[in-house]
Amino acid sequence: MTIQRIQGVEPITEDDAFLEKVLEHAHIPSLMCALVHITGDADLIRGDIRPEISFFGDEQGNITEDDQAKIRALALEALKKLRDGAKLPPPPSQATVSEMVDFIVGRELSGDYGEFLHSELSLNGEDPYKPQGLDRIDDATKQDFKVLVIGGGMSGLLAGIRLQEAGIPFEIVERHQDVGGTWYQNTYPGCRVDSPNHIYSYSFRPTDWPKYYSPQNVLREYFDQVAVEHGLKRHTRFGTEVTEARFDEDTATWEVRVKTHDGHTETLRANAVISAVGQLNRPKWPDIPGQDRFQGISFHSTEWEHEHDLSGKKVIVIGTGASAFQFAPEVAKEAARVTIFQRTPPWMAPVPTYHDDVPEEMHWLLNHVPYYVKWYRFAMFWNAAEGILFAVQRDPAWGNQNNAISAENDELRQVLTDWIVELCEGDEELAAKSIPSYPPGAKRILFDNGNWIRALKRDNVDLITDPIAEITETGVVTESGARYDADVLIYGTGFQASRFLWPMKITGRGGVDLQEHWDGDPRAYLGVTIPNFPNLFLCYGPNTNIVVNGSIIFFSECEVRYILGCIRELMQRGDAALDVKQSVHDAYNKRIDEANLNMAWGAANVPTWYKNAKGRVTQNWPFSLVEFWKQTREPNPDDFEFIGPGQSAKQAASGG
Ligand code: NAP
Question: Are residue 313 and residue 368 in the same domain, yes or no?
């Protein structure tokens, strides 16, 4: 399968009837913005026809059918003219683009957002996250600087691409046999992306996705294709795991111990290490008494054992998080009986296109209507990410905070509750089990087209909320004493998310062991650097996960730009290493912790992988995306202590 790059500028050759037909599928707010480019007339977005943005509301922003028809008629005329040889007018001014941004997001955005959103839109075709200034560094300096990237998933490939563009030598070490990270590892049935796919792609590789939310095999293929396009596989050691990394204070370099699957070990040396190992790949097994006694087949969702035919089998599923939400309905199509054990129900949001193909007409629009793809991607970006952040922030003045933490959060709760009630179609027992009793946003809100509740309503599916007391040779016994037997037991119990970089042993300055230093409570500055671990850079590190959707690729693009900025800074100064100052790191983390306590995931008392055993939110970014974008745009040299080339790190630490 080839996952085509989206073009956006294909010539229009089709007849009027075809154009009329494809316009029926247009996203009207994006089409209106595209029309400003095509006609040069900005009055179109200054009139009464404008989208209203609501929580998981109407895709067309409540623009009436009549108004949609008016816009389609205007678009038809404009496309006909383009087809018949008309040229595009001069591009809209920056001020007009700002108006268009306000129009499509449905509100006036503060100046703060301006630069960020203009950059994200990238109307001039520039590469918005390309690290700057590396072209000023001479080749010999770059050639002397070797980078080791741990992990060939989404972030590791991105790091490789940017290092390659900059002309800096690098090697990727990947424990699996191929690239793709999470999309290589997770192969469970039903696995698909739950961020809109048009924003779940690298900014420099916009893609003509076959579905609005593509399945795992398509995503794996995408990352494979990107790796091949950039020649990254020849820079990658597959089937090789990093077991240890030690900062050599005499040379200010990293000594990295790797082990291949056949047991061969080797020591590599690098000036910098970029960890791109992700947060969600080491399975978390629950601590349920008797787990080892089960005599049937059992496995974890992330280590799916495809060799077992589940048809006609009795299957127990433990967990109702994002993974089980996707695989349990698929298992139910085959198995004789599926018994799902739910401890905490998930909130789910109505996303009717969740399993849908992108229709041919939409593919055509994205590829042919000038600027349509830019605005469509941008609308997805805004609606999915920044758009509902305000609805998961705590209002201290809001009364009882058990179910909702602000008026907006309560409004969101109502929308999501209505969705569940509608799907349950009068089954009050199911609705009562399925409506969460915690604020929306405290756990990930799952995208849904009714698939989950439909599965729960099947005759061969039972949803059990009675807590599990123990696992026996034949199945599960609950606290009330009920017994549920099964042939297969599937753990959808998540990942050891708080154990960042585990099980690698990482040793920094002064022999500091990273896991001991963190003591179960990982922190980093901007999620990227850790005091006493010079030139160790993390992608998707502590407090860089987002909850109310958006795309994690956005974070990686910001992080990698920042990391290459740090490397450029070193090269410009002629220094060997940089180490973030403890005071900078601590002040930053204080701000993160305070802000997280005021977000649904920090405020609510509900189990989540966002908090560690100490109750601190180790995973999530509590601010807006623009804030991360601004903070990671360029490293501030004042944040770091620099270690010179001839100066051992020990001397630098003692001020020598
Ligand atoms: P998860 O969200 O941590 O869910 C684990 C589930 O197991 C929860 O329902 C949890 O209940 C339950 N559980 C754990 N221990 C249990 C026990 N002892 N007894 C009963 N139930 C137990 O893990 P996940 O579903 O694998 O998802 C993790 C994250 O991966 C997601 O939040 C998301 O970020 C990512 N993900 C993304 C996608 C996607 O993009 N398509 C798909 C899958 C996963 P409690 O809720 O009560 O703890």
Answer: no
Residue with CA nearest ligand 1 atom 24: 494
DSSP code string of 318-350:
E--SHHHHHHHHHHHTTSSEEEEE-SSPPPEEE
Q: Tell me how far the alpha carbon of residue 194 lies from the centroid of ligand 1, in angstroms.
A: 14
Please report whether residue 286 resides in a domain: no
464 in the same domain as 524: no
Q: Say if 123 falls within a structural domain.
A: yes
* Tokens (6 digits) for 139: 């080749």
Instruction: Assign 111 a pLDDT band (cuts: 50, 70, 90).
Output: confident
Domain count, the chain: 3
For residue 178, the model assigns a pLDDT of 98
Q: Which residue minimizes the CA distance to atom 2 of ligand 1?
A: 321
CB 237 within 8 A of CB 270: no
Q: What's the rounded Cα separation, in Å, for the pair 96 and 123?
A: 13
b/e map 214-236, b = 16+ CB within 10 Å? bbbebbbbbbbbbbeebebbebb
Which of 199, 298, 609, 612 gets mutated to test ligand 1 (max ligand atoms within 8 A of its CB)? 609
pLDDT, tens digit (0-9, with 9 covering 90-100), for 178-202: 999 999 999 999 999 988 899 899 9
Q: pTM of this prediction?
A: 0.95
Based on the domain organization, do 308 and 437 belong to the same domain?
yes
Which atom of ligand 1 is found nearest the CA of 195? 40
Residue 549 has a pLDDT of 63
Higher pLDDT, 550 or 480: 480
- In this prediction, residue 656 has a pLDDT band, given cuts at 50, 70 and 90, of very low
Residue 95 lies in a domain: yes
Which residues surround ligand 1 with Cβ inside 6 Å? 192-194, 280, 286, 288, 318-324, 326, 341, 343-344, 444, 468, 492-495, 607, 609
Task: Determine, yes or no, domain membership for 601.
Answer: yes
Q: Could you tell me if 270 and 331 lie in one domain?
A: no
Nearest C-alpha to atom 43 of ligand 1 is from which residue? 323
Beta carbons within 8 Å of 31's beta carbon, 6+ residues apart: 23, 71, 72, 75, 365, 369, 372
